Amino acid sequence: MGRVIQPFEFVEPSTIDEALGLAAAEGSRLFAGGCELVLSMRRGEVRYRRLVSIMGVGGLGGFRAHPKHGLEFGAQVKIRQLANHIWVGKRWAALHEAIEQLHPPHIMNMGTVVGNLCSAVPYYDLPTSLYAHRAVIRIGDGRSDRELPIDDFYIGPRMTALGRGEMVTSIFVPPPLADAGSAFKKIYKARRRSNDLHKINAAAYVALDADKETIVDATLVIGSVGAKPVRIAKAETVLRGQSAGHAAYEAAAEIAAKAVEPMTDAAWVEEIRSEWIRLLARDVLEQAASRARSRHDPAEDAHLAF
Ligand SMILES: Cc1cc2nc3c(=O)[nH]c(=O)nc-3n(C[C@H](O)[C@H](O)[C@H](O)COP(=O)(O)OP(=O)(O)OC[C@H]3O[C@@H](n4cnc5c(N)ncnc54)[C@H](O)[C@@H]3O)c2cc1C
User: Fold this and answer.
1) Residue 282 — pLDDT band, cuts 50, 70, 90?
2) Which of 227, 264, 265, 306 could bond 157 through an S-S bridge, CB–CB 3.0 to 4.6 Å?
3) Is the CB of 107 under 6 A from ligand 1?
């Protein structure tokens, strides 16, 4: 830290086509809020001769959160906008909790969710919550758009499935089922002067039947344990059709602890990480299910009538 950033050209195009054209040149890079990029440049990890801001590009600022139609936001939407929206907190609680726990919180004012996602940093929190909500990534090349499930977006640490001449234009997060809830938790150990991870995060989505007794759908995700968040597919399968209760969440958490082979570091050996995974998995499932059970909001039901 503390290095001087080498001089660079700063350009502000107004169309996607123009932005992608400028970013295609050697030594050029797209950026939104700049939190990630400027930090990496200050650390001397990357050097660019030209930064292409997408903040003036038309068509990337859309934001809609509707419990029935889903959550949709463009690449320019700041994290703060999602944090402040009532429906995001009510219906996409895992994402909202991941945002609320960003540290330091003022990163929300500059950073975008899309920038967080595209940084592809293995220990970031928002991707784990977006996995739990089964987000869909919309990718554009200036002429057409394609959609990719978030599960297919990362191909490795700091590597995404974006092709040359493509950018993320927006993210769509499907509406949860009526009797569904979600939750996010993380644990980390702050260590100065160390780049080790020391962190695990987890997110879950649980949907119950109309009697709120049986699990009809579930997603369980563990993050910061490898190159990208890990969906615990076996646990999700086991949960579906089970009666909603502590035993089901304990069993699913046990599967998660065995399924994930976490990277270890100086702070947490494998056994400790596995135990944290088990506890976090159980807690997010319990919390998500409790939200699903207690969900009754007349204001929301009235809203849905329109
Ligand atoms: C001090 C600090 C603390 C943080 N703490 C946390 C934390 O606790 N948890 C957590 O999850 N995150 C954390 N973050 C990450 C933070 O949320 C992200 O850095 C921020 O959201 C990135 O958004 P941005 O708009 O600033 O991205 P930028 O810095 O502008 O861009 C980041 C990367 O994404 C690419 N990019 C941006 N937009 C697009 C697009 N539309 N299409 C394709 N590529 C694109 C850029 O080329 C660049 O490589 C922290 C960051 C900092 C600096």
Assistant:
1) very high
2) 227
3) yes
